[in-house]
Amino acid sequence: MIGMFKLSAFADEISPDLDEQIKGLRDNTVTHFELRSVDKVNVLDLTVDQRKTIKAKITDAGMGVISIGSPIGKVKINDSWDAHFDRFKIAVDAAEFFGAPLVRIFSYYPPEGEGKGDISKHRDEVIKRMRAKVDYMKNHPSVTLIHENEKGIYGDIGSRCLDLMKSVDSPKFRFAFDFANFVQCGDDPLDNWPGLKPYSVHIHIKDAKLADGKVVPAGLGDGQLEPILIDLHKSGYNGFVSLEPHLSAAGQFGGFSGPQLFKVAVDALKTLCKENNIPLAGV
Length: 283
Fold this sequence. Notes:
Elements: E1 6-9, H1 18-27, E2 32-35, E3 37-38, E4 41-42, H2 48-60, E5 64-68, H3 81-98, E6 102-105, H4 123-136, E7 144-148, H5 158-168, E8 173-178, H6 179-184, H7 189-196, E9 200-205, E10 207-208, E11 215-216, H8 225-234, E12 240-243, E13 249-251, E14 254-256, H9 258-275
Parallel strand pairs: 1-2, 1-12, 2-5, 5-6, 6-7, 7-8, 8-9, 9-12
Antiparallel strand pairs: 3-4, 10-11, 13-14
């Protein structure tokens, strides 16, 4: 079976303003939000009224939310578990409210003062916390947790991402494959793909240069997007490829591109897909 990719994006990379986010997505034939922030308010901190307004506008625009782009797991491993688990519950509730089937999460930074390599010492605690989150999902059947590889957390390099997937071993805990984040760790995405492919249910479109870690449009870096997307397509993938361009600014809890650079990012992906006969929904 040959698949067709669907387009989603972190719309707050276009603008903090929701109306401009919707316009930017529609102008670029992107149908779904990866909901991270609106008016510079994180998705986990939205009030009930803000949620209702956002949902109504997205629905009225004929669009949807594929994922809650939460920052869950972007804390130190020795930070309060109870406080963070409460934040996690908000993320799951947000997914159910917005009809999003996915919640993005991460796998913790090392304690203050420890080098990045020392996070491996905390593996057992990371796995314990992930299992607790998955256990919570038993009563939330419509939502799946997806782990994004991110520089500096436990699941930053391919081998540890695979360790997470195999150790937690649950269909409610899958993988969001991010090319650029592997490159920025000095890890080859193409080497990581065979092992992580069976777990990858969501794809983040972000490329980067190995020399300096600079984020660039799809296909212009060392992320090996082309061979991986070709293989994904031939394998019948019918899920989302989600644009997270970071072409203007990139930070620990988000990035920004603006309308013009967002279009550059989308056009680069469309060109890459067209050159390889990969169909994109709505394009």
